[in-house]
């Protein structure tokens, strides 16, 4: 479920009329997604031949003062030829508006479906698309600090007692105990750009084996490009429970990335630690969400252990995880 706010047809038509996109024809709530309300909007289009958009209402987690960074980033990357949806600006040139006290944005609709079991060919294409975003991101003039660094993730986990963590899973405290050690080992100095930070397969739209769109840039920030690749490896190259690696998918992802932006020796050497830091970020955010979300809520809680297992895998396998 991902329509948290009811918007009546008159209110929707009024909102769409503030954009030069033709008249509202239909609006359907999009079931996927957790954080925001999303609608698939059809209009008559500027030239009467019909057009589709996604309307997003920012419900939680996103600080609205970050929206100009996120929406400006979509416009920048789209203008640089990356497969990301551009923001539609209203008749006054604004990228976002307010409805019922909440910020909304109208975004270009991109075709495609997210792979649920990505193939190596799809991972190769995702790697290429990520590298293109990194190259184009170096020319984005705005900055945003990453709030989910390894240090901050360790800080989040430190707020919960061992027994509370063990209430989620008996093995979770052991992973949490290693968090500050991972944070301490993180080195600066790797090449940086704008990173997506959350490029799970469900944030990639594909037509066959080709990426048609990267979406959900709401964790984007400045950071090490190799870290983003490592996060994407963790998100793509395992079974959902994080028990078994699909090495072919992982290799294809990195090979696709390097076909556009080769890694330096330092970046390659750092991948196992960066992947542990990436996993730590999801262990921390999922643990925090777990305690913030009642068990009977409509939103399904995500299991931090899926990434605690991946973290242990990267720790044990080292460079072998990328071979
Ligand atoms: N620009 C787009 N073009 C086509 N479909 C889109 C677009 N943006 C979003 N979608 C669709 O809407 C769904 C929900 O979007 P999204 O994943 O951004 O939701 P969210 O609630 O903002 O994020 P999350 O689930 O990560 O919290 C996506 O799975 C995708 O199907
Ligand atoms: N993609 C994240 C949620 C958004 O940060 C996860 O699976 O935990």
TrEMBL record:
Domain Aminoglycoside phosphotransferase: 27-263
UniProt catalytic activity: L-homoserine + ATP = O-phospho-L-homoserine + ADP + H(+)
Pathway assignment: Amino-acid biosynthesis; L-threonine biosynthesis; L-threonine from L-aspartate: step 4/5
InterPro entries: Aminoglycoside_PTrfase, Homoserine_kinase_II, Kinase-like_dom_sf, Pseudomonas-type_ThrB
Presence of the UniProt keyword Ligase in the record: no
The organism's place on the tree of life at top rank: Bacteria
CDD domains attached to this UniProt entry: HomoserineK_II
GO molecular function: homoserine kinase activity
Keyword Cell wall biogenesis/degradation (UniProt): no
EC annotation from Swiss-Prot or TrEMBL: 2.7.1.39
Pfam families: APH (PF01636)
Class of this enzyme: transferase
Family the entry assigns: Belongs to the pseudomonas-type ThrB family.
Name of the protein: Homoserine kinase
Organism field: Qipengyuania spongiae
Name of encoding gene: thrB
